[in-house]
Amino acid sequence: MKTDELRESYLSFFEEKGCVRRPSDVLVPRDDPSVLFTPAGMNQFKDQFLGVGKLEFTRATTCQMCLRTGDIQNVGVTAYHHTFFEMLGNFSFGDYFKREAIHWAWEYLTDKKWLGLDPSLLSVTVYKEDDEAYNIWHDEIKLPANRISRENEHENFWPAGAPSLGPDGVCGPCSEIFYHPNGGKDNVEIWNLVFTQFNRVGDPPDNLKPLPKQNIDTGMGLERTASVLQGVPSNFEIDTLKQLCLAAADTVGTSYKFEAPEGRPIRRISDHVRAITFSIHEGVNPGSLKESYVVRQLLRRALLEGYLLGKNEPFLYQLVPAVVEIMKTPYPDIVKTVKNVQNTIKDEEEQFLDVIEKGLTRFAGFLKKAEQEGKSEISGEDAFDLHQTDGFLIELTEALAAKNNIAVNRNEFNTLMDRHQKDSGRNAFANSVMSEGPLTALHKTTSDTIFKGYETTEAEGKVVGIIAEDRLVESVVEKGHAHPVAIVLDETPFYAEAGGQVGDTGFMEADGVKFEVINTQKNGGLTLHLGHLLEGQLNLGQTLKATVVETRRAGIQRAHSATHLLHHALRTVLGENAMQRGSKVEEDTLRFDFSHSKALTPKELSQIEDIINQRISEGATVSTELMKLQKARDLGAMALFGEKYPDNVRVVQMGDFSIELCGGTHLSNTGQVGLCKIVNEEPVAKGVRRIHALTGSKALEKTRNTEKLVQEIAAQLKVPRPDELPQRIAQLQDELRDTKKQLLKYSSKSLSGTAEELLERAPTVNDVKIVSYHAQDASRDQLRELADLLRKKGKQVALILGTVIDGKVALMAAVNKDLVKQGLKAGDCVKAAAKVVGGGGGGRPDMAEAGGKDPDKLDDALTTGADYYRGQLEA
Fold it and tell me: By C-alpha distance, which of 101, 93, 83, 89 is closest to 25?
């Protein structure tokens, strides 16, 4: 059975059992701060497991793309470890439980209609105290006792060790299913059934309290099960990943065989390039923080494997089409971002190869240091310094050290690395994926807030929740709260911040009560009105009149509608690869991030601005419609990759030129934008650019301010019309050049007098004049001219001059050429002087320049330079 067939088979089986088939959640969950990447199939169902919000279904099945880095050292080494992988799962939220989960798992694995595995090659484990699960396997499935193993809480409990070690919260025993190919010689875990039936409270004994609703969370590794069905020794040998390994080997310039020495690095390259392709597809580019840091490390580790195989140029980007080819059936969207993903990967590869080349010199220094100290290893501190300062991965340091028959103190390195990760918060995943708090409690007792803001900016709503000082309260009294109070209504016209659009502001009122809303946020299905009580007492169950500030909402709508026009214009001018990567929409102000590899030209920006304002002048109709997600995709609606969309989505269409998935508030026609003015374009990340623009009154104000500024400049330059400014500026530049020439003549005369004065008072050593001079407010050109004058006027001169320019030291040293023949070098003098001011430099033996950071020590530097000359001449 092929991998794609297995995925479809599993999902179809559990659909027949009444489970709702759900799409994979995004790989990078934006609304879940507890994890950087989705680590398991249950993550998208955390609210259902916690009983939070409305329960639309009680059983589900998914194939979830996941990313974990906890076992990264084993990737490519063992047969089954990955960073990116797919997890097949079936779930129950207070519906079916152990009996159904076990029976269905056995049916799917052994029934010839489905996988048809030999039952005699399967065994299971259960938690040692879980007699219920044991009896189902033994008495109902008829599995012999010698193929059922009872294990402790560290092996068969979720979370591992929870009864004794915690944490408090939802937990339960699990049952693992193993397959034994080759007559039982090997042992492959293929499925884990988790029975979440307890709430852990405090320390043992009697700390596991039964939950009112019992849940099922199962996980079957897609790649691992495919390897069993296809009879291959490793996940990397299945039909999909084998293709990727062969492509990677071909790109690197080697062959791929599972047992060959090159097999491990090729498998690691294949695994990592799949992970980074999906991450960058969702808009997570390589960087230095959080998930971006993980992507950078995966990319660099993969590139390093190729580098050590002799591939000293970018190659990972060439593998993106191969990843897309094997993954496009379940995830068709990745086809649309191939070019952007490739450009981003290639840029990062080029940067890291530069890092390697620069780091080789420092590595050589540490190698020499170890040899001089008679040590057989490079210290962990030096290896960590290479890693942290130069971006030199520890694997590269170890590989190069091995080539020189020397080791690296890995234990010391690991200690320093662990300390660094703890300090910088770069651990890939948080410890907990479940959390309790006032909002969680509110979700359990309150339905989702009904949003009325598409139709109106004023509506009545009943107070169903009040959170003050981080706890649920029944009332709040007017007083100076240090922190905003959160009010939840059953219905509201206030738009909660989402999709880049900021939350509404306004007021909520009743007789004798006035509450100012300073921000509106969303938590799950609840809308939180954050603000301060200005008058009276606000009580649970009270009805309030909620009013949004209309002028601000109108400005936000102008800016939001303009982002759709901007997206359309960008794709028209730059091509379809210019896809949205994020946005921020405020009152008549917007910023828009999009995929593009280089800065926009002035001509391109003008074209984009023209298209936007042309669409505004057309006054095209803006319509919205709620429809099924698949229907919206079939209509060609553009979506933000990496964004999680519900089954029913809101589609915003402008004329016949723009159709996008969008939950924000909009105008009724494009003409209401009024005017759109682009004010800035800049880079924000590799392959991502950002445009800032203004709409409505702010765009008009920007235009007027620019006109006013031009008029003021014209008045100051005494130009009757602004269009004559370029001619007047050119004239002034000519006059300035002439003035500089005249000043140079005068300064030359002044410098000539200075040179004569310096030579008169200069000390003489062996018939050589030693000149040391701190020139006030001089330029580098003036220092050079003075040096030339001194050498011309004096027969034998050794000089050191200095000045301060823009807060930094400039030094100039020079000697007559006859003195150079005698061994006196200006370069050595200026280097000695530069050290005093924290700088460096050099040049020809007869004239040399240097710089420095410490102006306060300039006189000391000049003295040092003069002492150098004196010492050399006296010697």
Answer: 89
Closest alpha carbon to 98 in 16, 199, 216, 19: 216
Q: Which CATH class is domain 3-120+178-232?
A: alpha beta
Binding-site residues:
560, 564, 662, 666
b/e per residue, 160-198, with b = 16+ CB within 10 A? eebbeeeeebbbbbbbbbbbbbeeeeeebebbbbbbbbb
pLDDT score of 205:
87
Q: CA 216, CA 97: separation in Å to the nearest integer?
A: 6
Model confidence pLDDT, tens digit, residues 343-393: 999 999 998 888 888 778 788 888 888 888 888 888 988 888 888 777 777
- Does the domain at 438-547 match CATH 3.40.50.2300? Answer given as no
Give the annotated binding-site residues for Zn(2+).
560, 564, 662, 666
What the block records as the tokens of 719 is 């130009």
Residue ranges per domain, the chain? Answer: 3-120+178-232, 239-424, 438-547, 553-704, 754-874
Mean pLDDT of the chain: 90
- What span, in angstroms and rounded, lies between the C-alpha atoms of 510 and 515? 9
Domains 3-120+178-232 and 438-547 belong to one CATH topology: no
pTM of the model: 0.74
The parts of the chain modelled with pLDDT lower than 70 are 183-185, 421-436, 480-481, 742-749
- The CATH fold assigned to 553-704 is Threonyl-tRNA Synthetase; Chain A, domain 2 (3.30.980)
Distances (CA, A) of 784 to 39, 121, 814: 65, 88, 9
CATH class of the 754-874 domain in this structure:
alpha beta
